[in-house]
Structures are given as C-alpha cells and as structure tokens.
Write a structure and sequence with these properties.
The chain is an all-alpha fold and about 1050 residues long. Among the domains are: about 10-220, Leucine-rich Repeat Variant; about 275-495, Leucine-rich Repeat Variant, CATH 1.25.10; about 540-760, Leucine-rich Repeat Variant. The longest helix has 28 residues, at about 980-1005. The protein is elongated.
C-alpha cells in the first residue's frame, strides 16, 4: 500500500509515464475524464500530453492499453495539437494494437486512425497503414486492410487517395492468408463502388478466376453514385447538407445525391520505364536493310509500348526512328507496327508526348496516301493518340498544309482527323481565329470531285458547328448553296461530342430568308461574305432615283449652268437627309452623281455638295461595297484638292464606316498608287493614318499595307514619303517593334527618320476606337464586330510569314551536331542567317528543335549563348505560333539557368522572357515540366527560376492548377543551404499564395516530412541564434520533427 500511496499523489501526466501499470491505468482514466471536461480545443492543458499520446496506445499492459486507447481517442478528437502526433500514434496503433487478441482494442485503434483522417491527416494515416501491410504478422496486415476499407467507405475517394490503395491490391490478392485475401476482395469492391471501370486496367493482370469473382461482386453493386458519410472538420457545411438530405429521404423526398468524382484509370497506374529495356541493337536493326530485322526491332518496341502508363524520358531518338519508318519504309506491315508503337507511346506518355507531335503529324498525314485498310486504321489510331498529347493550335499548320494535297485519300483522312479532333474541343479551345482557316479549307473540299472527300469535309464542318454553335459557323457558309448547308447541319445533328460535352448552341432548322437585293455592308474585319449586289444599269438607277428625288433636281443635274447644277445638288442633299434609310436606293443615288458633267465638275461648290451626298448616303443608308466602288476612285481624285479635300476625306470616312476600314483602306491604297498625282497619294496616306486611330487596327491587311508603304517610301515626292512615315507611326502603335523588321533594308537616312517617329510613339497606348461600330447594332453585324475584335487581339498573327523548313537541310543539321566545335558554330551561323533573311517565319522548322536542344547543353559556352540568341530570334520571328515548341525547345532553356556563369544565365533569362512575351505564361505553368526543373537541387537554377516566377506571377490574373506541383519544391527551397535560394523562395512565396490561396498552401505544407519553421518567413530579420532558441522552447517528440498544425495556415505568416 505504501507504493500505491506514493504514485497516487503524482500529477496525472506523471502517472501516465509511471513504471507501475496500475499507476498508468489510473493516469489514463484521469486523463480521459480531464479530456472530456476541457471545452476549449486550444487549452494549454493539451500541450502537456502531446509527447505522451504514443505511450497511451503502446502500453505493454493490455488492461492499461485499453484505457489508454480510449484516452487517446478523446485527445485526438478534441486537442488542437493532436495533428502533430499522427505519425507516431498511428505507427504505434499499427504495431502494438492491431496485433492484440482483444476485439475492443482493435476497434479503438481503427477509430483512432479514422479520427486522424477526420482532423485532416488522411495522407499520414494512409502512409502508416500501407506500411503495416508489409508487416510479417498477418493480424496487423488484416487490420490495416480493414481500416483502409472503412476509410474509403466513410470518407470517399475525394479524401482517401485511391492510387496507393489500388497499387497494393494485386499483392494482397496473392497473400497466403485467406482472411487477408477475402478482406482485399471487399476493399476492391469498395474501391470499385467509387471509381467504377477505372479500377479494371490496374487489375488486368491478376488471376482470371479471382477477376471473375470480383466481376460478379461488382455487378451486384447499385448503379447509384456513392456518397461520403463521414466528414472532415473543414466539411461541416457538407455534413449539414447530408443530414438534411437524409431527413428529406426519410420523409419521402427525392434523393438529391451528388455523383462521385470521375477518376481516370491512368492516374491509378504505375509508370513503367521502357527506354532501358529496349534491345541494345534496336537502333541498328531498325535501320537494317533486311525487313525482317526491322520488324524484329519494331515488335520489341511494340511489346514495351503496350504498358498503359510510361515513365517520362528522352524519347526523341525512338520517335525519330519511328517517324522514318512511317514516312519512308515501303513495307506496309512495318508501317503498321510503327504506327501502333507511336499510338502506344502517345497513350502511355499523354501530355509528355506533346513535344514530339510536331515531328509525327505531318508524316502520318502524308502517309494516308496508303489505301490498305489495316494501315489506314493504324495511322488513324496513331494520329488520334498524338493529338490528345498536344493541342489543335499546335497541329493546325500541319493539317492545313495537306488540305490541298493532290491525293484524295490524304484530303479525306485529314478532314476525318479534324472531325475526330473537333469532338474533343470546346468553344474555348476552338476559337474563331482557329476555326476560320479550317472552315475555309474544308469549304474548298465540299466541292471536290471525289465523293469521299466531300463527305469527310461535310462531317468535319458539321462537327465544328456542333462544338461552337451554328451562329459561329454560319458566316463562313454564306457562299454555299442551301443543299450543302443543310447537309452540314444534318451531319451536325448526328455528332456526339467526346466526354459528354455540351454543344455551344442548338442547330436550328435550315430555314433562312434570302438576303435583300442590296444587303448592308458589314463593319467587321475580315468582313462576312454576302452575295454582292449586281451593278445596276444606268436606266434602272435613273428610274429608282426619280422615285425618291424631286423632278426639278433630276432635270437640272446635267444643266450647262453651274448655278442650276448647284441648286439641283442642294435639293439632292436635302432629299437624302430627309429620306427614310430603309427606302434609300444607295447605288442608284451615288451613280446619279456621275451624270454629266459628273466627277469632272469644275465648280468647287457643286463638287463639295456631291462629296457631302456620298458621305450622307454612306452614313444613313444600306451602303454596299458595290456602291462604294462606284465612287471611290472619283472621291480619291479630289482628296488632294485644296478646296474639296476635306469633304473628300469625310466621304472616305463615311464609306469606311459603312464598308469596314480594312476593306476601304485596301481599296484606297491600291487606287491612290494607281494614280500619278503625288498630292492625292500623300493625302490618302494622311487620311489613313487618322482613320486607323479612329477605327482601330483590327482586320487590316498588313502585307498589302507594307508593300504599298515601301512604294511610298521610295517616292520622289517628299510629301508622300513624310505621309508614309506618319502612317508607319500609326501602325507602330498597334504592331510594336516587329514592324521595323520589314524596313531594315531601307537607306540609313530614311531608317533614322522612321526610328525617330517610332521613338515618339514608344510608351503610348493605342486610342480606343471611336468609329466603326455604328452599323453593328445587333444580329449578325454585331457578331461581325465581335469577330473583328477577336481578330485584332494579336496583330502579330497578321504578319506574312515565310516557311524556312526547306532551308533546314540535312547538311545544316549534321553540322550543328558535329564533334568539331567550329563546324557546330558554322551550322548555327547558317541558322541565324536563315532566320534573319526570313524575318517572320512559320512554325514548321524541320529537325531544328532536336539539334538546338542539344546545343543548349554544349560544353562550349560561346555556342550555348549563340543558341540562346537564335532561340530569341526565333521567338520574335515566329510570334505566338512558337507555343507549339515550348515543350521541346522552351523548357530546355530553363536548364541553362543552372550554369555557373552569370553571362550565360542572363542570356537564358533574356531568351526565356522573349519566349514568354510571345506565348504568355500559361504554356509554362501547365504540366509537370516547371516543377521538375525546380526539383533539381542546383542553387543557380533555383534562385534564377524563383526570382523569375516572383516577377511573372503577380502579372497574371489566374494560373493553371499544375502550379501546385511546384509547392513542395518551393518549401524545400525555403530551407536550402544557399542563402540566395532562400531569399528568392521567400520572395516567391507570397506570389504563389496570391494565386493558390491559404488552404492549398496549408495542405501542401502538411504533407512535408520536416516542419518548416514559419518564423523564418514571418520574421526574416531574426538571427540564427534567436531562431535556434525559439525552436528549443517548443516540445518535440524524440526522433521526429513537429509538423505544422492545420489551425495555423500559412496565410498567418504575412499578417502585419
């Protein structure tokens, strides 16, 4: 009794550590009572037991352990610091509780694990349970499987990650213990309840008898979607909703259950590394002269590509070899196997295969000339798989290039490929800028002589209509006869979009009234195609004009007395001003102005009135381009006149408002330079400069403008040259620096004048358009205006581009890859010269990406810098189309940031920024590539990349979800040995939080094995010694770091 009285006087926390089991039992009992009394989850009392909870569950005495488990469960459910104990407590439960014979102990152990899940520690619990599956004691493994099944059943697939669970199922099915195998079957059934058929591929290799048993169990499951029945602390709103639903169901209400989240089977699979498993002589055999050896190599690769998920790696050489077989091998059987290999690689790598899409798509499209059904089917499967790894934008150039191929099979299969690709698109991924060139190319094919080509084109157009809606496609069908339009709508009605996507609009019945004889001109660029009204005969014009004009006016228009002509024109102008715009015969009225003496009128007052009438008719009536063409040349002849010039410019502005500036400007420039009067040319260019600022630059034909401006710059008259330079200054406001590249060949004196004008415009923003939208009041014309706005978003896209793929010869490529650095430099010099000569280029650049990527890792730093300069030049020359090379050439630029030389890193950053200027940031934040680079433990790379992100992220309105993948590496950088890396990580941290939010940042931090001390974030000025003292004052379990608690989210770091 003396011993008993000794420990009975001890405080509760000391009793819990006592060597006498009765003392511990008493301590656990008192602790349980104390835990039940504490109402404040942040009470300091909880901290006393933080290091003792593991002992609660691992007590060597079975009786005391049972009470300790009850106390531990109460502690975990109420204490705010409980989440810090998850690893050691769950590990103790697995090793010391699940092997106990008492069912009550196992039950409490399971409840403890599930309580940790409830307090947001699902991943840590799952990790310990999965470790327990490898325990030699079958009781422990069985209990772990049971707890996993309960966790999935109660919390669902959103909370419990199913990928690691699915991974261990095949191993559990092979267990010697029947109880474990049976429990594993129940777990598989529970997992299937949540993800359905996504579970089949990972289990395809298990015993067939077992698989049949599982199939039978799966068939018994209800078809209704499962629901989460237990909720996290942060999901209390869902809990209330669930309880209300249960109450409604109990009262006979409708079951308003939510569908379980769709799970991709691919995400549950383990990636397989196949590159090292290729035969050592693979590349020799695939180049062999004997087809049997080539077949042997391809079959070996095909067997490897049957793995459903492949590990990422450098597949460039493999793809190059397959591309050669598909493109050049005469044995169709080998082409078929190579196509299957491509499909397998693309399916297994998914988005990681997008780098190689640009090399394969043109080759596969050209190979569709083969007529054997087996080959065509294999090629179709290959190109469809490749498409899913990239975007329609990236393959658009290659597809459009073969749409006018002489071989009908190629045209047919290209159209069918587009049709299948459109099914995976949405109105966002199929914008009007991309839709237009495809529609134009397909509309040519609907008139093809081959019926199979026509049918394929109809199907593709119908699919596009289903995706973006009839309203978006109709403008392109204006010149198509009704039967063909109906056929397209019929095809659209039969289309089913991939993934159950909803179409943008319903296809209406093909009933559309015929357009009026003279439809109003559209105000958009490019303008919508409408049947142009026929040029009316003079007699017809006179009859129509006589109906709306006074008789005296008609009689005196051709009078020999200028005063009578003046009076007639005054009546004419007054009548037009008072005329109903709907009844105004515009063409007839403007043609009456040409009645003798017409536009050769010598009296300036009469001529001014004629120009005013043109302006009034254009502004008030339904003024067509036919009407405009009837007067444009005459108006331009007066634009340089001292007395009539102002009225002539007003008339041109009126015509531009009615017929759109892009069309009017093109006519004005061509007509002005067809004349020999320099005064008219100078004033026409001057009007155009002002018109661009008033109407905006959308839809302008840049190529035609530049050719005419060059002619004006070469004029002998200084006024014409000055007006041309002013026009260039106006264009510079909208086009920026790329405009100058077209005039680098001009004389130095002239170029300095141009540069001086450009310098004045730097820093200025283009004025908002004040004209050009008056006619677009609704309906189709409003759509046209919207198209014009969309078309003008990226003016650089309008620039004429040169295809340099024929200049990228095999000799040049071999030089760039030569062992001699002088030869490599010579090859790079040739590439730079080709880019300089072409200025603006198309995205097709042959094998250049592969060899330039290799040069970024060149041992000669001068060549690395030269390669970076070429890539910078390429970005400027290619414009936004460089997006398709981001994966293959853009991300390798990031690897150069790991260089130890400041000059090389600076060149890499300049190149990177040049690319981002053209592509935008989204392409760089999508996917795993950026996080993989940040993962590399190179201090130079990390500090440069984090510094770059700290600058770029604040400029973005939104970011892709893949940015989350960078968070673990960002946190790692906060504890990096290098001070510069830590500093850059601290600078980048708030920018990540700005986009991702506190919750996501907190969840990512909770996954870390070692706690990040937030004091280093909140107080960066704190000294190392102070920091050490502050960490020593915190209680810490032996051998483990304390993890951050959920109640202290990272957003607290920046308060104050």
């Amino acid at each position: 009794m003396g011993d008993d009285s000794e420990w009975m006087k001890l405080p509760t926390d000391q009793k819990c550590e006592h060597k006498v089991w009765k003392a511990r039992l008493s301590g656990y009992t008192e602790a349980l009572q104390q835990f039940q009394r504490i109402t404040d989850e942040k009470s300091p009392e909880w901290g006393k037991y933080q290091g003792l909870v593991k002992k609660f569950v691992t007590d060597s005495n079975a009786v005391a352990q049972l009470k300790g488990l009850e106390a531990a469960l109460a502690y975990i459910g109420s204490a705010h610091v409980a989440s810090r104990t998850v690893g050691e407590v769950v590990s103790g439960v697995v090793c010391k509780v699940f092997n106990q014979p008492k069912a009550r102990a196992k039950e409490l152990g399971s409840d403890i694990c599930l309580m940790y899940v409830e307090i947001e520690k699902a991943e840590a619990v799952q990790e310990e349970l999965l470790k327990g599956l490898d325990n030699k004691n079958p009781k422990i493994a069985l209990a772990c499987v049971e707890v996993l099944r309960r966790a999935v059943s109660e919390f669902g697939s959103k909370i419990i990650s199913l990928k690691p669970v699915v991974k261990v199922l095949p191993k559990l099915f092979e267990s010697r213990e029947k109880a474990i195998r049976d429990e594993a079957k129940m777990l598989a059934v529970e997992v299937y309840r949540w993800i359905r058929d996504a579970l089949r591929p990972p289990l395809q290799n298990i015993n067939s008898v077992l698989l049949k048993e599982l199939e039978e169990e799966w068939a018994k499951l209800p078809s209704s979607a499962p629901r989460q029945t237990r909720f996290l602390r942060s999901q209390q709103d869902l809990r209330v909703k669930f309880e209300q639903q249960q109450q409604n169901e109990g009262e006979g209400g409708e079951d308003s259950e939510e569908a379980a989240p769709a799970v991709d089977a691919y995400e549950l699979l383990e990636a397989v590394e196949i590159l090292s498993k290729l035969p050592k002589d693979f590349y020799e055999k695939i180049e062999a002269k004997k087809w049997q050896e080539r077949k042997e190599a391809l079959e070996a690769l095909e067997a490897l590509t049957k793995n459903l998920k492949l590990e990422s790696g450098e597949y460039g050489d493999v793809v190059k070899a397959l591309n050669k077989v598909i493109g050049k091998d005469t044995n169709v059987m080998l082409v078929t196997i190579a196509a299957k290999c491509v499909a397998g690689l693309a399916t297994g790598l998914r988005k990681k295969f997008g780098t190689y899409a640009g090399h394969l798509v043109p080759t596969i499209l050209e190979k569709f000339k083969e007529k054997k059904a087996q080959v065509v089917q294999a090629l179709q499967e290959a190109i469809d798989a490749v498409f899913l790894s990239t975007t329609l934008q990236n393959v658009s150039e290659d597809v459009l290039a073969v749409m006018d191929n002489k071989n009908p099979s190629v045209k047919q299969q290209a159209s069918l490929f587009l049709s299948r690709s459109f099914r995976h698109c949405t109105p966002t991924t199929l914008p009007k800028s991309l839709l237009k060139p495809f529609c134009v190319a397909l509309l040519k094919l609907v008139n093809d002589s081959a019926p199979e080509v026509r049918d394929a084109a109809f199907e593709a157009l119908g699919t596009a209509m289903k995706v973006v809606g009839e309203r978006a496609v109709n403008p392109f069908l204006a010149d198509l006869d009704k039967l063909k339009v109906d056929k397209i709508k019929e095809c659209s009605g039969k289309v089913e979009l991939a993934g159950g996507k909803k179409p943008a609009g319903q296809v209406k019945a093909p009933s559309k009234p015929e357009p009026p004889a003279e439809a109003p001109a559209k105000t958009s660029g490019p303008p919508k195609k409408t049947p142009a009204p026929a040029v009316a005969k003079p007699e017809v014009c006179e009859e129509k004009a006589a109906v709306v004009l006074p008789a005296s006016c008609m009689q005196m228009l051709d009078s020999a007395n200028w005063k009578e002509r003046l009076a007639a024109m005054e009546e004419f102008h007054k009548a037009v001003e008072q005329m109903d715009s709907k009844e105004m015969p515009c063409q007839a009225l403007v043609r009456m102005l040409a009645k003798k003496p017409g536009w050769k009128e010598t009296n300036f007052q009469v001529m001014q009135l004629k120009l005013q009438v043109v302006s009034a008719v254009a502004q008030r009536g339904s003024f067509s381009r036919t009407s405009a063409l009837a007067v444009l040349e005459a108006v331009l002849e007066k634009v340089g006149d001292v007395k009539c010039g102002v009225r002539a410019k007003e008339a041109l502005t009126g015509i531009a408002e009615a017929c759109s500036l892009p069309w009017t400007a093109e006519q004005v420039v061509s007509l002005a330079f067809a004349q020999k009067n320099p005064k008219n040319q100078a004033e026409a260019l001057s009007w155009l400069s002002n018109a661009i600022k008033e109407f905006g630059f959308a839809g302008i034909n840049v190529k035609a403008f530049i050719n005419n401006v060059k002619a004006a710059l070469a004029a002998t008259n200084p006024a014409v040259r000055t007006a041309a330079i002013s026009l260039l200054a106006a264009m510079y406001l909208y086009m920026g620096a790329p405009l100058r590249m077209f005039f680098e060949d001009e004389k130095a004196a002239l170029l300095s004048q141009i540069d001086a004008e450009f310098e004045k415009m730097k820093g200025q923003t283009p004025p908002a358009p004040i004209r050009g939208c008056s006619k677009a009041s609704g309906g189709e014309e409003a759509d046209a205006q919207e198209e014009e706005a969309e078309g003008g978003e990226d003016v650089v896209d309008l620039l004429p581009r040169t295809d340099i793929s024929d200049k990228i010869t095999s000799e040049m490529v071999s030089k760039i890859g030569d062992k001699n650095w002088k030869m490599r430099k010579e090859g790079l010099d040739e590439v730079a010269a080709a880019l300089s000569e072409a200025k603006f280029i198309k995205p097709s650049i042959g094998e250049l990406p592969v060899v330039l990527k290799a040069r970024l890792a060149d041992s000669n730093k001068i060549l690395v810098q030269q390669t970076l300069s070429i890539l910078q030049q390429m970005a400027t020359g290619m414009g936004p189309a460089i997006k398709q090379h981001v994966k293959g050439l853009g991300f390798p630029i990031l690897t150069v940031l790991a260089d130890s030389k400041n000059t090389v890193r600076a060149a890499a950053l300049a190149t990177l920024n040049a690319w981002v200027e053209q592509t935008g940031m989204k392409e760089w934040l999508d996917g795993e590539e950026l996080s993989e680079e940040l993962k590399k433990e190179n201090p130079f790379l990390r500090q440069e990349l984090l510094g770059w992100l700290a600058v770029k992220l604040p400029t973005l309105r939104s970011v892709p979800s893949d940015l989350l993948l960078c968070l673990p590496h960002l946190y790692s950088c906060l504890e990096d040995r290098n001070a510069d890396v830590r500093k850059k990580a601290q600078d980048a941290l708030p920018m990540f939080m700005m986009h991702l939010g506190c919750d996501k940042m907190n969840k990512a931090a909770a996954k870390l094995k070692v706690r990040l001390d937030y004091l280093t974030w909140r107080k960066p000025t704190q000294t190392r010694g102070e920091h050490a003292n502050s960490t020593q004052r915190r209680p810490q379990s032996p051998g483990r770091g304390i993890k951050p608690r959920p109640s202290s989210p990272p957003c607290r770091l920046f308060k104050g």
